[in-house]
Specification:
InterPro entries: AI-2E-like. By secondary structure, the protein is mainly alpha-helical. The protein has 14 helices and no strands.
Length: 371
């Protein structure tokens, strides 16, 4: 009698070879790694700018931090000192601007209250205008000198819209303050564990990209160092020079305009509007000599900084043409905001290095890999 049990009639299960199984596992691991990487970046998408800023701060401070660490030894308080230093660099000017802005807002509120009670007195120069003096005088007297009509005009402003804008500004300030705090936290841990981070980054870079990965990293780090010197330090220098000029020529709010000039000068050619505004304010105060001094000195300082100092500092550190540097700065600032001032040149430096390696003749350096 034949044995017809299921154990004898079930089809044989094919057994894959170890090579195909290993290949399938490698593809599965790669897919899992990519999925985890993407989902991690998506989870941290709102904090990525803060993490990138912390990385930029750490890269910029690392040479100085290592020199200080070699002198005083590796301590737990040294990263805290450097982090506090960076915080003060940003918070002190912001506090000064905030205090000054609060004073200006208080003065503006008092002016609005006085205008509602007494109107806006007509300046002496309105009746002496070369054209349309009579019409301008009549319009001013009918609309601005009368408290009743002016009060009606002020009440016609959409108060609810103004309050909504105030809430939005407050929300943005709170959000950016939180991101700045996370940037400082990232900076602290990068400084504290910098040696470990560098070691692991080098191991991972060699495994993924070989020796060229380390070359790209060095090129991008050199670009960040050059950008720090060529944009931030040069911008601060321009602000200090022009601030002294503002003070000596009697410009209004010289400290505030000096800080605005320093911030604007961190982007090439952007300091011109600030210097021009101060010159116009001096001209409005009938200070013709002061306006000429500020305009001429500002033109010389900006021209020298943008055409000689910046190319030497930024391009010299990466051996990159200044056109590439300028495109990286302007394109990065337009795409990434202030963070793009550092990311843009770093990306262009990496692309320039890849282009150099790609177009290099193998006979020029037989030991160098060609992509």
């Amino acid at each position: 009698m034949n044995d017809t049990s299921p154990s004898n009639t079930s089809p044989a299960i094919p057994v894959e070879s170890s090579d195909s199984t290993g290949s399938l596992q490698r593809r599965a691991r790669l897919g899992l790694y990519l999925f985890l990487l993407l989902i991690g970046l998506y989870t941290l998408k709102n904090f990525l700018p803060a993490i990138l800023w912390g990385g930029v701060f750490a890269i910029s401070l690392w040479p100085l931090y290592r020199r200080v660490e070699r002198k005083v030894g590796k301590t737990d308080w040294l990263p805290l000192v450097f982090t506090t230093f960076i915080a003060l660099i940003f918070l002190v000017p912001a506090s000064l601007v905030g205090v000054k802005l609060a004073d200006e807002i208080q003065s503006a509120l008092q002016w609005i209250s006085d205008v509602r009670d007494n109107g806006i007195p007509m300046p002496e120069w309105v009746p002496h205008l070369p054209f349309g003096a009579a019409q301008a005088t009549a319009w001013w007297q009918n609309h601005l000198t009368s408290p009743q009509r002016l009060s009606h005009l002020l009440h016609s402003v959409d108060i609810s819209h103004s309050m909504q804008m105030t809430k939005q500004v407050g929300s943005q300030v709170l959000r950016r303050g939180t991101l700045f705090a996370f940037s400082l936290l990232t900076l602290f841990f990068l400084l504290k564990d910098g040696d470990y981070v560098i070691e692991k980054s080098l191991v991972g870079s060699h495994r993924l990209f070989g020796r060229q990965g380390e070359d790209l990293a060095k090129q991008m780090i050199s670009s960040i160092h050059g950008t720090l010197a060529g944009l931030v330090l040069v911008g601060i220098g321009e602000g200090v020079i022009m601030g002294v000029a503002y003070a000596f020529t009697g410009a209004p709010q010289p400290l505030l305009f000096a800080m605005l000039t320093a911030v604007a000068a961190m982007i090439p050619f952007l300091a011109w509007p600030t210097v021009g505004l101060v010159s116009l304010l001096l001209l409005a105060k009938s200070s013709m000599v002061g306006a000429i001094v500020v305009a001429v000195l500002g033109s010389v300082v900006i021209f020298v900084a943008d055409h000689f100092v910046r190319p030497a500092l930024i391009g010299g550190s990466t051996k990159m043409p200044f056109l590439w540097v300028l495109l990286g700065i302007l394109g990065g600032a337009e795409t990434w905001g202030l963070l793009g001032l550092f990311l843009g040149p770093a990306i262009m430096a990496a692309i320039h290095l890849l282009w150099t390696l790609w177009t290099e003749e193998p006979s020029d350096n037989p030991k160098k890999e060609i992509i």
